[in-house]
Write a sequence for this structure.
């Protein structure tokens, strides 16, 4: 019999890292690894890292630092680091933190069982940060006995060819490479068979999916995914505005499973900055794309990423960003202070914005974001919305009833009560109608009306 060993994965960063971390669990299962309940129980700890902003990188190093004393107490413990920081730093990590046993890069997910085996057999440190061979299809069959989450991610491509001037991603994740549509469909079908109802298709720029390989366009992939039986909802992230085609906009009119939301990062409202960021669209093009989307789908929820304090950003540039935010009327924003990243050309740009100015601008932007999101959410008051139920809170709500949670098609989080007497069966993974009774800037509250 194989020895049972415990695996703990600590994930920092984007949804793609979340997907990869799930994959680590799956590829290591056949080697006897099962999830550890706590860090202390683990035989193998994998830290899956992000380097998109300096703060994320610091988080990885501070977590790895904590592992030093654990390793001293338990020399058998294996410590591995994967993801973008691992890719970027490679062997430097072990000279800085000699208690790290394994360093593996962003393209090594499929090789992970091999890497762990090599370490177990030799006991000597393994560092694998090669970008080749491009191995993005290494998908083990899903465990037949493991249920899949109601809502989950599926990576459809890796890497990025856009080279936005502030961004480290093209350097740590390599060139854009798409998975084959057959493989993606097979994976989603397997997930759906085990309970998944909603998938979010992931890529740094899903709009250019398959173009380089000439295999299948992103809108055509969406059409195929829409045909999967028992799948209820489709989402995707992230889209680059420059590649948002009319064909993709058409899919919003065509495909009933495609959710009523798009995350379309604009980064700035100033054309001068957009050019310096190498984004390859203008403010006017962005607005025009959103208008088209809203014609294809009424009430489309739109969210975005914003960078404040990019080198050379003046008060006027920043005001243009605030103006754009009001013009679009976003449902939510992720906003970040610009941070210098290795390799990214903006490191050498003049006119760096002082930290206190960045901080002020971020606060101002977030205040506007909150009031706009509140306004967008207020429109839901009294409406009955279909919600995909993906969670149940342990606590009993104010009304003495148990609270459940899910999302609207527009991606709003909804917490709601279900009178226990009125339902006898589990509603996890079901679509239910909920009457919205309270609207907050980042969530809604309501009461169950019926299960569809
Ligand atoms: N500084 C600040 N924010 C950044 N992002 C990417 N690189 C940087 C950087 N150097 C933000 C962008 C991107 C999101 C994932 O992270 O807004 O869309
Ligand atoms: Fe970075 Fe730009 Fe690629 Fe997004 S599109 S990952 S911001 S280089």
């Amino acid at each position: 019999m194989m020895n049972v060993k415990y695996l703990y994965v600590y994930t920092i960063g984007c949804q793609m890292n979340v997907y990869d971390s799930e994959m680590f669990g799956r590829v290591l299962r056949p080697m006897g690894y099962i999830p550890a309940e706590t860090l202390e129980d683990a035989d193998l700890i994998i830290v899956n890292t992000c380097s998109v902003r300096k703060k994320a990188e610091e988080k990885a190093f501070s977590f790895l630092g904590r592992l030093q004393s654990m390793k001293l107490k338990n020399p058998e413990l294996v410590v591995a680091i994967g993801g973008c920081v691992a890719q970027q730093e490679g062997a430097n990590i072990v000279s800085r933190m000699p208690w790290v046993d394994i360093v593996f890069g962003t393209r090594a997910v499929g090789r992970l069982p091999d890497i762990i085996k090599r370490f177990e057999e030799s006991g000597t440190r393994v560092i694998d940060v090669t970008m080749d061979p491009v191995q993005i299809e290494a998908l083990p069959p899903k465990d037949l006995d493991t249920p899949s989450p109601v809502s989950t991610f599926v990576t459809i491509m890796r890497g990025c060819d856009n080279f936005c001037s502030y961004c480290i991603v093209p350097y740590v994740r390599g060139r854009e490479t798409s998975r084959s549509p057959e493989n993606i469909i097979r994976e989603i079908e397997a997930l759906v068979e085990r309970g998944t109802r909603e998938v979010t298709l992931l890529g740094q720029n899903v709009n250019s999916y398959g173009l380089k390989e000439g295999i299948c366009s992103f809108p055509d992939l969406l059409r195929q995914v829409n045909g999967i039986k028992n799948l209820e909802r489709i989402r995707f992230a992230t889209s680059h505005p420059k590649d948002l085609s009319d064909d993709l906009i058409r899919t919003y009119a065509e495909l009933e499973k495609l959710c009523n939301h798009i995350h379309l990062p604009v980064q700035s409202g100033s054309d001068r900055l957009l050019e310096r960021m190498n984004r390859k669209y203008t403010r006017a093009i962005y607005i025009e794309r959103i208008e088209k989307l809203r014609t294809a789908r009424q009430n489309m929820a739109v969210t975005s990423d914003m960078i404040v304090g990019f080198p050379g950003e003046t008060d006027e540039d920043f005001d243009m960003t605030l103006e754009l935010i009001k013009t679009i009327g976003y449902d939510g924003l992720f906003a970040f202070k610009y941070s210098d990243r290795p390799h990214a050309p903006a490191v050498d740009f003049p006119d760096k914005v002082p930290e206190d100015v960045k901080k002020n601008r971020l606060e101002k932007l977030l205040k506007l974001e909150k009031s706009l999101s509140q306004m967008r959410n207020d429109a839901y008051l009294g409406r009955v919305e279909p919600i995909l139920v993906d969670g149940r809170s342990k606590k009993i709500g104010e009304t003495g009833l148990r609270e459940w949670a899910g999302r609207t098609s527009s991606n709003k989080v909804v917490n709601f009560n279900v009178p226990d007497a009125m339902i006898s069966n589990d509603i996890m993974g079901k679509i239910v109608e909920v009457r919205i009774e309270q609207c907050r800037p980042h969530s809604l509250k309501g009461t169950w009306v019926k299960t569809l």
